[in-house]
Specification:
Helix content: over 70%
Distance between the termini: 26 Å
Shape: rod-shaped
Radius of gyration: 26 Å
Length: about 120
């Protein structure tokens, strides 16, 4: 019992705190945050219009390319915001876990005692 309590309130609790880094790294990997940041202003799905010879074709290509980059930026921004929301959610859950962690062994003892008394 002594070894369990030493682990629970020592290394176990520290492992819960360190799990935040692993969890946020998983979110960054699932949402490809590094890739999204490096291609934030890239055209959407590499849709690029090449300019022609006339001024009208050059203007149309420029407009199409700006539009494609804007769509790409907006979609990537929403995915990055979703990753940020998930990271905040994980931070809140980890904080709750850190608060509840030291109380769990007491809850087990309290549950056994309550079960015997009721």
């Amino acid at each position: 019992m002594r070894v369990f309590l030493l682990w629970w309130y020592g290394d176990g609790w520290a492992a819960v705190a360190k799990s935040f880094n692993r969890r946020t790294a998983n979110v960054a990997q699932v949402f490809s945050v590094n890739q999204l940041l490096s291609t934030l202003f890239a055209p959407w799905r590499r849709i690029i219009t090449y300019p022609g010879a006339s001024l009208e074709e050059k203007f149309r290509a420029w407009t199409d390319n700006i539009f494609s980059r804007t769509i790409g930026f907006v979609i990537r921004l929403f995915v990055l915001l979703t990753a940020l929301i998930m990271t905040i959610f994980i931070a809140i859950l980890t904080l709750i876990e850190l608060i509840i962690w030291p109380l769990l062994p007491l809850g087990i003892i309290g549950g056994v005692v309550a079960g015997l008394l009721w």
